[in-house]
Design a protein that fits this description.
heterotetramer, A alpha+beta (96), B alpha+beta (1004), C alpha/beta (417), D alpha+beta (202), B: 1004 residues, alpha+beta, Ubiquitin-like (UB roll), FAD/NAD(P)-binding domain, 7 domains, seven-stranded mixed β-sheet, elongated, D: 202 residues, Alpha-Beta Plaits, 2 domains, five-stranded antiparallel β-sheet, 24% helix, binds flavin-adenine dinucleotide, binds nicotinamide-adenine-dinucleotide, binds flavin mononucleotide, binds zinc ion, SoxD_sf (chain A), sarcosine oxidase activity (chain A), Sarcosine oxidase subunit delta (chain A)
Chain lengths: 96, 1004, 417, 202
């Protein structure tokens, strides 16, 4: 069971959270929507990075403070590398 | 009842003053308090205890612990019958009833044993090659195969016992209560850390329980254990759990453990039977010890063939000889300790057969000094005796150790103990997906680097460190270090000391002990006892190209039995490595998976049985419904009143009565389960514009509006009425099932996409109980109990709301309708809900006010063609498909799902549309889900154009009514379509969905 | 030709201590180039290679497998085979596969132990019953066997089910597909491997694809841990790793990889003769020929390439199981594992072309593709061989995510396995 | 408002009074219901001093801006729910007045006030074994080194969502939605089989 550090509540068991999906997918603006092709829209709607490695994703502390936040998590080891607030860009996780 | 013929006069940790009666296969025996079933059977001279999985070979006890592959026993009877339990881990209690398994008619005479005679025809994977004829013959053969397989027999009665679950937390978790683990717990505990120590055995001590004369800190080892136990018990932040197996090492240092609370007391004990612990530790110390490997020699599965360390445990711990005369076969020094202990206990050791050319270690010397013969450079080539070892053949090994030479020595004995070296118990380490590495000195896998995020360390035998003093020191250091790391600075004391063991000579790896015949052509060299996998099977897998260990495992089923290969996996993969000419680490291990030992299903469920499987949510007046005979319907977790049958009424009667009364006069329904969300902030209206498809800016305070929400894919996912309370304040309602989903949806968009928008969402679903009065007389009823407002059409028009009092209680009423009839939705505080409901009921008495349930509610809304999200929709319908083109805010720039509506398939005009269906025969009520075709054929396949989403008898239209989604349906009005189902075909006409107008007209 | 497998050859070999069995497949060295490279030695990849050789005469084929063949989801699924899908497109595809399953043992000369013992889907609420009827009627009209059972009929078929009306989720009915059942998962992979090998297909295990050679938008071969290998056409059939491979080829997929967990009990004598699934409480169970109960549940919510999941899924699943089958409370879990399933937004597979020419993809089978193994291989072989989708595969093209023509088997199909 | 006897608490039908009379004397865990407490949900920006001042003006208490903490002033007890979400709780009956005062105090701010008193009931749990009982269904570490009086947390308890407010060394207020209260009460009944438990009606 993952141990996720809610930026507000601290570490809690995974079952208190709900998984969202890949983070940093910007919703096209109305102007973009009006000019983009169906294929481009499909890209926004459905296409996912699904990386084997570090995944930037969002979670919500649904059984706690109801806050959404971002997580950088390794999809092979399940190691949580970083938790960072909504709105913050994906961290640069160059090897230290 | 015979005497315990193998019981030693003295010694062991059993209490000879407390005899315990038990039965095995119907026969009664005595053992002593402190015995395991295995030790008690051995004491009574019972060596044949079971039959193997495939060949039904007679089998005896092999080990004295969790690794037992053979002695699988059925414990208990009736609803408590439990198959496949390991005899060495069953503690004896008075009245214990046990039986052997996988035999018929009896253990002694098992018809299935013909498999053994035919075993030549049943090599690994034989079933893949046979039973292929005739084409559908497998179902026939399968019956027999299934019956032969499957070991024990499960009970078909409900398990009567109860189980418990608990969460735990600690700084340091120690798994294994041997010397290393105890030392770790002591050090961490003394330093002040919160510690949990678990051990699967009934008492602490680990391997020390099997020792004869070891001492620690100058006192007998078990005295040291007792002192440590007392010290640990006195530490308030230390918890010691015996009879507790850590069976799974999960993400982020969580260990699942099962505590056996009453299994050793028997069915009469009170309290839960077992408890599931989910313990989150900051650091885990794995002190899980090691498991001895048997040697793979010919006929090594005869009852009486046992691990050398197990023999030692039986003698030292249980005061029981495993037999009367023992031969030991070994490739290392540790088995000599067994010989010495046997000699000390007066059990006859006929000889020690050593695979090594010239063993000269201290223990070997000591053994010789005791007058026990050591036959070096030799192998056991045969074990005779079908149901009990009678004799072994011993021959000399050739120079390369690959074959045997010279004459045969026959040695009479009833027990053969073997030791092929020790394998650290790396299971939990490996479950974290950390690697193991091959240690060339130990010829065993030891733990490799740990995984990131999994803070653990292996110590003692679990790490391949076998000296007692070293185990104590390592354990101590690991415990102290962990405590230090977490800031606990009390003195951890110093490590306990022990004398060093005499130096041992290296082990001689010999993965198959040769016999006088080629492997597979004489006796059988068993590798995996339980699943009957032999060295010849490994060779066959190799020959047939199943080379990877994973293929080897699956093709031969080696390591897949209930012991998960604890004694066999390394032997098997080493044999494969030899065949492939590879190093053992190159071949690798199979994957270690939870559980370490099998865990009862019941304990995972814990106490959450029956109604606790999933909470039942109840409305504030649930009890009233129950008292008035309501049948309930599950809607999500809610239980909602479905209909209220009166005496003698069928469901159909009751629903018709409720529907009719509502249309004719007045009905009342408990709609408290509707989702309600309070929305406040200057951007509230902007937000509603984004999440609903229609426009909200112009809605005035005091007014209500209906809307659809779509996913970004354009498909409807919820609907409801939202009311403007004040300029910046809205009250949203959602479907019952959608309440939680919609709130998180709003929060997600707000927090993630539009965080600058000033708006707050709060669930108020349960702040209000909701009672909807419907029907022409609803106003008259309400008038009698309402105060503070004028209910007239002019003062309180449709699609508006008012605050007021009802029956003296603060209330909010919405003039919205889900029936098409005059309707008032009365919202009141739940604590007064019953009071208000009763007041409405008495006010309505003169109008025959009728409570109705969800079924009538469905009929009433269907009569007017109102949709239910989740019934008319299934995640593939747009608002346009449902005929709500008008609800799409054309002028509105953006809303969630808008862009998707423009995609080529979504924008098609001939998608499936929601329409009405009128059966040709008005009496015929279609089943919901019935499929619709244009052209009926004699038999399927037929092309379907849609299906029925809702269908009822409408007492008001006095005919059957249905809604359906049909391809291009709106452009097919009046067309007759067909519904083939349940062996008949019903014709129906596509119509509009207002059945009180159109349906009634159609009837006329 | 490979040695025939039959009772006669078994007896003959037994007399010779089984010394003469041939290897089931070779371990060849890679050739510099193949007509077709299939990436992924799971059931689907091996079936693709087999049908390429058998039905399209293309035998210069390699299957590249990064580990051991059959070690992906093929080796870790709960082996349920059925074709009772809601939408026409799915029903036709899965029925095609089920029909192939019915002759597979003979076709492959390898007993895949396809046991058509019947498969039950339980309904516990009014809503379940509606969905169930809709599905059954649709399946029947597609010409596929399916029927509705009453609680009494259910009790008779599976007496150990708790059918009491007072259960938290009482059993109100079930759909039954008699032709559904289970098959031996490993045997399916091995049978296809053996026969593909017999027809000349090179199965290259421990050969991981690490990149693609693409020139002017046309695939020319692959990079592997054993060096580059050229190919005229390449098919990707890597289930959970589809996103990774698509990434290497420069495009994205609407696919997410999630853990799906399964577990087995200790083996016991026959106690359950039907496959029982309950979407409402999220559990499904069958008993293998060896005697273990084989159990599955739902996916873990997060994406992952670790073949493990979270314990609360197992707890809920066993909570549900022991409620449905109160007598299973005393049985024990023997082993528990996970696989990585490739889930699509509409719970339907993707079969067809990719943005790269001559590069084809077959993925998205998610939690339910074992049953599709022969069918999927069959239509994918056709698609690769002809360069055009097999008629059954047309609706499952990648472009449906652009047009919006999804085949949403989520809500409607109830349970996904 | 009608007579008080018409007001029913969520757990009233379990007859706590009668059950309390039969409770064992040596109980190590006590359970009861604190019904009808006023709970007003307050939303606003804790970074805004005006918001903090408004809360203080009405309640006399400092807003617990630190996650998972509480504050208390007289009859008012304030709980942190989220970074912009709090409960102001007060004795039964005061909710309307409290909500109105808060709303008034927030005039001109982007803040929201909504009465949620009726949606929850409080199950009170206390006694030396209370923490052990909670561990049966709650994965939070409530050990005194980690959690104590002055702290609160929203979390899961068994299969329900709750807010746990620790009142003193061994007592907890457990806020639960009324629709789950029957379930949770009965769940405690299950767990109590292994404890010496008493019902407290006060
Ligand atoms: C627990 C569980 C239960 C399931 N239950 C059922 C069920 O009951 N019924 C059902 O129909 N379906 C079920 N499924 C789904 C089913 O198992 C899969 O859909 C199906 O097996 C997929 O087969 P495949 O051949 O496409 O994939 P796989 O068998 O996963 O094969 C893909 C192969 O590609 C290889 N690969 C990956 N990357 C590379 C690379 N770079 N280079 C070379 N090779 C690579 C992998 O090693 C793997 O062997 C279940 C799945 C799981 C996990
Ligand atoms: N080659 C040798 O000389 C040799 C071999 C084996 C053991 N030993 C001796 O054994 C001792 C090793 O001490 P140690 O403390 O490292 O190990 P140990 O074997 O004494 O103790 C390990 C304990 O862990 C328990 N255990 C294992 N897995 C568990 C699990 N998953 N959950 C709960 N309990 C579990 C076992 O039942 C056992 O009680 C030393 O005294 C050493 O001399 C020596
Ligand atoms: C249908 C089926 C039945 C299985 N039966 C057993 C079994 O009887 N014993 C066993 O140890 N494992 C059994 N397994 C699990 C495998 O050992 C293994 O865990 C699984 O194939 C996943 O591989 P991995 O654990 O090596 O990652 C079974 C798996 C499947 C798919
Ligand atoms: Zn939080």
């Amino acid at each position: 069971m993952l141990l996720i550090s809610c930026p507000y509540c601290g570490p809690r068991d995974e079952h208190e959270f709900s998984y969202g999906h890949e983070a940093h997918i910007a919703r096209p603006t109305l102007e973009q929507q009006q000019t983009m092709s169906d294929a481009e829209w499909a890209d926004y709607l459905f296409m996912r990075k699904n990386p084997k490695g570090v995944h930037f994703e969002r979670w919500v502390h649904s059984r706690g403070c109801r806050q959404w936040f971002n997580v950088a998590r390794h999809t092979v080891t399940h190691e949580i590398i970083k938790v960072y607030p909504m709105g913050e860009p994906a961290p640069n996780l160059e090897q230290k | 009842m015979s005497a315990q013929k193998n019981r030693l006069a003295t010694g062991g940790r059993i209490d000879r003053s407390r005899p315990v009666r038990f039965t095995f296969d119907g026969k009664a025996y005595y053992g002593y308090q402190g015995d395991s079933l295995a030790s008690a059977l051995l004491a009574n001279g019972v060596t044949l205890v079971g039959r193997s999985f495939k060949y039904h070979r007679p089998r005896g006890i092999v080990s004295a612990g969790a690794e037992e592959p053979n002695a699988l026993i059925e414990v208990g009877t009736g609803n408590r019958r439990e198959p496949n339990t390991r005899a060495p881990q069953i503690e004896l209690y008075d009245g214990l009833t046990t039986a052997s398994q996988n035999r018929w008619p009896s253990l002694d005479f098992d018809l299935g044993a013909v498999n053994s005679c035919l075993s030549r025809f049943f090599p690994s994977g034989f079933y893949y090659k046979t039973f292929k004829w005739p084409k559908d013959g497998w179902l026939f053969y399968e019956k027999f195969i299934r019956r032969m397989a499957g070991l024990g027999t499960g009970s078909t009665e409900a398990d009567p016992d109860r189980y418990d679950k608990v969460y735990g937390h600690c700084d340091v978790m120690v798994v294994g209560g041997g010397p290393a683990g105890i030392a770790a717990a002591l050090a961490a505990g003394r330093a002040g850390a919160r510690v949990v120590l678990v051990d699967e055995q009934s008492e602490l001590g680990g391997s020390l329980l099997s020792e004869r004369d070891r001492s620690i800190d100058g006192k007998p080892a078990m005295d040291w254990v007792a002192a440590a136990e007392a010290e640990l018990a006195a530490m308030p932040e230390v918890k010691v759990l015996t009879r507790t197996t850590a069976f799974a090492y999960l993400d982020a240092n969580m260990l699942s453990c099962v505590e056996r609370i009453t299994d050793h007391i028997g069915p009469n004990a009170s309290g839960p039977r077992q408890r599931l612990w989910r313990i989150r530790a900051r650091e885990v110390i794995l002190a899980t010890g090691s498991i001895e490997r048997p040697l793979v020699y010919s006929d090594n599965d005869r009852p009486g063939c046992m691990l050398a360390s197990a023999g030692r445990t039986y003698v030292n711990r249980y005061g029981t000889a495993p037999g009367q005369r023992v031969v030991i076969l070994t490739n290392n020094d540790t088995a000599y300790q067994t010989a010495l202990d046997f000699a000390a206990a007066g059990v006859s050791v006929a000889a020690v057969v050593d695979l090594r050319a010239n063993p000269q270690g201290a223990l070997v010397q000591a053994t010789r000094d005791k007058g026990i013969e050591v036959i070096a450079n030799s192998a056991i080539t045969h074990v005779k005796g079908a149901k009990q070892v009678k004799e072994v053949d011993v021959m000399s090994l050739s120079a390369d150790g690959k074959s045997v030479t010279g004459g045969v020595r026959h040695i009479y004995c009833d027990t053969v103990l073997s030791s092929g070296g020790w394998q650290p118990t790396v299971h939990l380490h490996s479950q974290t997906r950390a690697k193991v590495v091959w240690n060339e000195e130990l010829h065993a896998f030891v733990p490799g680097p740990v995984m990131p995020g999994q803070n653990n360390v292996s110590v003692g035998a679990a790490k391949g460190v076998f000296g007692l003093a070293d185990c104590l020191a390592e354990g101590h250091e690991a415990g102290a270090e962990a405590a230090r790391r977490f800031g606990f600075t009390n003195a951890a004391g110093s490590a306990a000391g022990a004398e060093a063991e005499p130096a041992a000579e290296p082990l001689r790896p010999m993965w198959i002990v040769p016999s006088d015949k080629p492997v597979g052509q004489g006796g059988k060299h068993f590798v995996d006892y339980q699943n009957d996998v032999t060295a010849a099977d490994v060779m066959l897998a190799h020959r047939e190209g199943y080379l990877s260990v994973e293929h080897l495992k699956r093709y031969t089923t080696m390591g897949m039995a209930t012991d998960q290969g604890k004694t066999s996996n390394v032997n098997a993969l080493a044999i494969m490595a030899g065949l492939r000419g590879m190093n053992i680490p190159e071949v690798g291990t199979t994957t270690f998976r939870p559980p370490y030992t099998p865990v009862t299903f019941g304990v995972f469920a814990g106490p959450d049985k029956g109604d606790f499987l999933d909470p039942i949510r109840k409305t504030p007046i649930h009890q009233w419904h129950a008292d008035h005979g309501a049948a309930f319907e599950c809607v999500g977790q809610w239980h909602r009143a479905w209909y209220y049958p009166k005496a003698g009424e069928s469901m159909h009667d009751a629903v018709n009565r409720e529907v009719k009364a509502t249309r004719d006069s007045v009905g009342i329904v408990d709609a408290s389960t509707l989702g309600k969300i309070d929305i406040q902030g200057p951007d509230a209206a902007w937000f509603l514009n984004m999440v609903y498809t229609n426009a909200w800016t112009k809605l005035e305070p005091g007014k209500c509006r209906y809307g659809f929400m779509c996913g970004e894919d354009g498909m409807v996912f919820d609907d409801g009425v939202t009311s403007r309370i004040a300029e910046n304040h809205f009250h949203m309602t959602t479907t019952t099932g959608g309440a939680a989903r919609v709130l998180s949806w709003l929060e997600e968009w707000h927090q993630c996409e539009w965080p600058d928008r000033k708006v707050y969402f709060t669930s108020v679903t349960e702040q209000w109980a909701v009672f909807a009065l419907n029907g022409p007389n609803s106003r008259k009823v309400l008038e009698k109990v309402v105060s503070g407002i004028d209910l007239s059409e002019e003062a309180f028009p449709f699609m508006s709301w008012r605050d007021c009092e009802v029956a003296g209680v603060k209330a909010r009423i919405f003039r919205i309708s889900f029936t098409g009839a005059l309707s008032f939705e009365v919202n009141v505080p739940p604590s007064y809900a019953l009071h208000v409901w009763r007041a409405l009921m008495s006010a309505g008495e003169e109008f025959n006010i009728t409570p109705y349930g969800t079924e009538a509610l469905h009929v009433l809304r269907a009569e007017k063609g109102f949709v239910i999200v989740g019934q008319e929709t299934d995640g593939t319908m747009t608002p346009q498909d449902l005929g709500f083109e008008w609800i799409i805010g054309k002028a509105k720039p953006d809303f969630i799902g808008r862009r998707s509506h423009l995609r080529s398939d979504t924008a098609r005009p001939d998608r499936k549309h929601l329409v009405g269906l009128l059966t040709e025969n008005p009496q015929e009520v279609l089943p919901e889900g019935a499929q619709i075709v244009e052209h009926v054929k004699d038999k399927p396949p037929m092309t379907m154009i849609g299906h029925v989403t809702s269908s009822y008898w409408s007492p008001n239209a006095n005919r059957s009514i249905a809604m359906a989604v049909i391809k291009n349906g709106r452009n097919r009005m009046g067309q007759t379509v067909y519904l083939p189902y349940d062996g008949k075909v019903v014709a129906a006409r596509i119509a509009k969905t207002d059945f009180l107008q159109d349906g009634a007209a159609a009837n006329a | 030709m490979k040695q025939n497998y039959s009772i006669f050859t078994l007896v003959r070999n037994a007399l010779n201590y089984h010394q003469d069995w041939q290897e089931a497949w070779r371990s060849p060295a890679p050739k510099p180039e193949y007509d077709v490279i299939v990436i992924g030695g799971g059931g689907h990849g091996l079936a693709t290679a087999y049908y390429l050789a058998k039905e399209h005469g293309i035998t210069n084929v390699a299957v590249l497998e990064k580990g051991w063949l059959g070690g992906g989801n093929t080796g870790r699924n709960t082996t349920i085979v059925r074709s009772n899908y809601l939408w026409d497109e799915s029903a036709h595809l899965y029925e095609h596969s089920l029909k192939l399953f019915e002759g597979l043992t003979q076709d492959l000369n390898y007993n895949v132990m396809f046991s058509q013992r019947g498969l039950m889907n339980l309904a516990h609420t009014q809503h379940d019953m509606q969905a169930l009827r809709r599905r059954v009627y649709a399946i029947q009209l597609n010409g596929i066997d399916s029927e509705i059972l009453t609680p009494e009929q259910i009790k008779e078929m599976v007496p150990i089910l708790d059918c009491s009306a007072t259960a938290r989720y009482p059993i109100m009915g079930a759909s039954l597909q008699r032709r559904g059942g289970v098959a031996r998962h490993d045997a399916v992979a091995w049978g296809f491997a053996r026969k593909a090998d017999e027809r000349g297909v090179d199965i290259l295990q421990n050969t991981e694809v690490t990149g693609f050679r693409i020139e002017n938008g046309v695939v020319k071969g692959v990079e592997t841990t054993r060096g580059p290998i050229g190919a005229k056409k390449v098919g990707i059939v890597v289930a959970g790793h589809s996103g990774v491979l698509a990434g290497m080829a420069g495009f994205r997929l609407p696919v997410e990889s999630h853990p799906l967990q399964a577990l087995v009990s200790e083996p016991i004598k026959p106690i359950l003769n039907t496959v029982v699934m309950s979407p409402q409480v999220h559990v499904y169970v069958s008993q293998s020929d060896k005697g273990e109960l084989v159990l599955g549940a739902g996916i873990d919510a997060y994406t992952s390439y670790a073949q493990v999941g979270s314990p609360f899924i197992i707890e809920n699943q066993l909570n549900a199981l022991t409620d449905l089958f109160p007598c299973f409370g005393r049985l024990r879990m023997l082993r528990q594992w996970g696989g990585i399933v490739d889930t699509c937004p509409d719970a339907s597979p993707i079969i067809g072309k990719t943005p790269v020419e001559n590069l084809f993809i077959n993925c998205g089978w998610g939690t339910g593709g074992f049953k599709a193994t022969p069918g999927s291989g069959n239509v994918f072989a056709h698609t690769i061989a002809r360069g055009e989708p097999h008629p059954l595969a047309v609706p499952f093209a990648l472009d449906r995510f652009t047009s919006g023509y999804l085949i949403d088997e989520h809500g409607a199909a109830g349970v996904a396995h | 408002m009608p007579e008080a006897y018409n007001r029913r608490s969520a757990l009233q039908h379990f007859g706590l009074k009668a059950a309390a009379a039969q409770s064992p004397a040596d109980a190590r865990v006590f359970i009861g219901e604190a019904a009808h407490r006023a709970i007003v949900n307050v939303r606003g920006n804790p970074g805004d001093p005006a918001f903090l001042q408004a809360v203080k003006a009405v309640t006399g208490a400092d807003l617990p801006v630190k996650p998972n903490t509480t504050s208390q002033a007289g009859e008012f007890r304030l709980l942190w729910l989220g970074p912009t979400e709090y409960w102001v709780t007060a004795p039964a009956g005061s909710e309307e007045k409290l909500a109105a005062e808060l709303r008034q105090a927030f005039t001109g701010q982007h803040a929201a006030v909504i009465d949620v008193s009726e949606s929850r009931t409080i199950i009170t749990l206390s006694g030396p074994d209370a923490r052990e009982v909670l561990a049966r269904g709650c994965s939070l570490d409530l050990h005194p080194r980690v959690f104590g009086p002055g702290q609160c947390a929203q979390t899961g308890l068994a299969k329900a969502n709750v807010l746990i407010d620790q009142r003193d060394a061994t007592s907890y207020d457990i806020y639960v939605l009324k629709s789950f209260s029957d379930y949770l009460w009965q769940w405690f009944g299950l767990v109590h089989r292994d404890f010496t438990a008493a019902i407290r009606a006060d």
